[in-house]
Amino acid sequence: MAKPISIEVWNPNGKYRVISTKSMPGTRWIKLLTDQDCRVEICTENKTILSVDDILALIGDKCDGVIGQLTEDWGEVLFSALRRAGGTAFSNMAVGYNNVDVNAATKYGIGVGNTPGVLTETTAELAASLSLAASRRIVEADQFMRAGLYDGWLPHLFVGNLLKGQTVGVIGAGRIGSAYARMMIEGFKMNLIYYDLYQATRLEKFVTAYGQFLKANGEQPVTWKRAATMEDVLREADVISLHPVLDKTTYHLINKERLAIMKKEAILVNASRGPVIDEVALVEHLKVNPMFRVGLDVFEDEPYMKPGLADQKNAVVVPHIASASKWTREGMATLAALNVLGKIKGYPIWTDLNRVDVFLDENSPPPAACPSIVNAKQLGISASKL
Length: 386
Ligand SMILES: NC(=O)c1ccc[n+]([C@@H]2O[C@H](COP(=O)([O-])OP(=O)(O)OC[C@H]3O[C@@H](n4cnc5c(N)ncnc54)[C@H](O)[C@@H]3O)[C@@H](O)[C@H]2O)c1
Ligand SMILES: O=C(O)[C@H](O)CO
Hints:
Keywords: Glycolate pathway, NAD, Oxidoreductase, Peroxisome. It is a single chain. The protein is of the alpha/beta class. It folds into 2 domains: 7-118 and 324-379, Rossmann fold (3-Layer(aba) Sandwich), CATH 3.40.50.720; 120-317, Rossmann fold. It is built from 12 helices and 13 strands. The termini are far apart. The chain binds nicotinamide-adenine-dinucleotide and (2R)-2,3-dihydroxypropanoic acid.
């Protein structure tokens, strides 16, 4: 028999049993569910990553919906168990859903929710922070101070890269990539080169208008270019930030050959998913190119780093915290809960992901819609008219 899993229960007499595999920030998400007749069970097991067996034990034989995490493996085994337990709803508390087998969920009629929009600016801000930390060697300099090694100003001490007037490269200019590009362009007057499968029209218009504004004020205008190939970005840019989804087209997008064509003093930032970079190749590249720097929020074998990475002074590493602002994390919890609630209640799908704010307003009830269900079309969920 499976080991019992410890849980905290809200609204024990609720009609719909909804599980959250982790405690999530804020309480609004719990209230939204309990107000709508859900019994909410939050896993309190003292274990960072739950196994498939742990989650099977949580689902049990009656469960209407689950809010899960990006560290969990949501595939055939869990979706078939959820279906057997009467469930129709699942949401990741994340925008990325590479940990989810959407086809398996669809096969069992289960909606897969995610949380786009609410983390765009927060994640872009972390990518910008990593760009600055790497270019100005902030972490190395901090460690030097704390080690008591500073004995006076020196002309060569921790010399880094100036961003102003340099070129920022964005690979994957979707919501987060575009927000990051704007920060680097507005903040540091960098020129843009980007690569995406689709044209980033709004971003292009913004850079054009900002360039005209600068020119009208007697300043050097910023420019943009949509690259025909990813290699063009890698060759031309001084700072390159990766923001694509992780799928088979982006696995090891940055490999040994592509690292070799980047500038020797380039800065590479990754706040997308670890496997977008071949991390073994990256460690080798960092070793032989001390002026090349990286800022990493995500890792190929998370939570582990590939051997040698931690020893590299030219790498700034943080533990997957790009979406970690209070507002964003509470918002992610709310969107995930509303995805599950909406699917259970048979609500239509929200169609304007640029307007997820309406679900986050504490002072008014959220629309009767599912904020974001990635397989809505396959499941025949209708579009909201709100
Ligand atoms: N580190 C974190 O905490 C964190 C936080 C949020 C999101 N993310 C990751 O960032 C990703 C992007 O989020 P988003 O909200 O901007 O999504 P998005 O869908 O708006 O943007 C992704 C972009 O990648 C582009 N793309 C897809 N395949 C590509 C390819 N082969 N080459 C180039 N571009 C390609 C798409 O066309 C799209 O424009 C998420 O899927 C998630 O994995 C990480
Ligand atoms: O995909 C996501 O949402 C992140 O990785 C967690 O914020």
